[in-house]
Write a structure and sequence with these properties.
This protein is of the alpha+beta class. It has helices at about 5-20, 60-75, and strands at about 25-30, 40-45, 45-50, 80-90, 95-100, 105-110, 110-115. A five-stranded mixed beta sheet has the order 1-2-3-4-5. Strands 6-7 form a two-stranded antiparallel sheet.
C-alpha cells in the first residue's frame, strides 16, 4: 500500500475515534492491523468493532470476518453485544453503519431461492 493511501486511511481512523470518543470511556485504534477491525470502542455492555474505509468499499471477506468476530464476542443472552460497524464518509460527513448478516450470493436451486453466506 502506498504511503499516502496508508496515511489517508490512518487519518480517517483518527477522525472516527474522535467522532465517537464522547460516548465511550475506551476507544482504541488497531494500528497497522490489516485485519477486520480498525477501531474498537468499549462501554458498559457494548463493544463497537469498526472497519474504517475512506472510499466506503468493504469486501465480502472483510464483512464476513467482522460478522464472525462480532458473533464470537457477543454474549449469547444479549447482555453484552459486539456490534460490527462500517465507517465511511459520505458528502464529507462520517457515517457509521451497522453491518447485518446478508447473503453474499442468491441463486436458484430448482424452484427455490437459496442464499449462501
Amino acid at each position: 500500500m502506498p504511503k499516502h493511501t496508508y496515511a489517508k486511511g490512518r487519518g480517517f481512523e483518527w477522525e472516527v475515534m474522535h467522532f465517537i470518543r464522547n460516548g465511550f470511556p475506551l476507544v482504541v485504534r488497531s494500528a497497522g492491523s490489516h485485519g477486520a477491525v480498525d477501531v474498537v470502542a468499549i462501554r458498559q455492555g457494548e463493544i463497537w468493532l469498526i472497519q474504517c474505509k475512506v472510499d466506503g468499499s468493504i469486501s465480502p471477506e472483510e464483512r464476513d470476518e467482522l460478522l464472525k468476530l462480532s458473533k464470537l464476542l457477543s454474549h449469547p443472552n444479549g447482555s453484552f453485544k459486539a456490534l460490527p460497524l462500517h465507517a465511511y464518509k459520505e458528502g464529507g460527513k462520517i457515517v457509521i453503519k451497522l453491518l447485518k448478516s446478508e447473503p453474499r450470493h442468491i441463486k436458484l436451486k430448482g424452484d427455490t431461492l437459496v442464499s449462501e453466506y
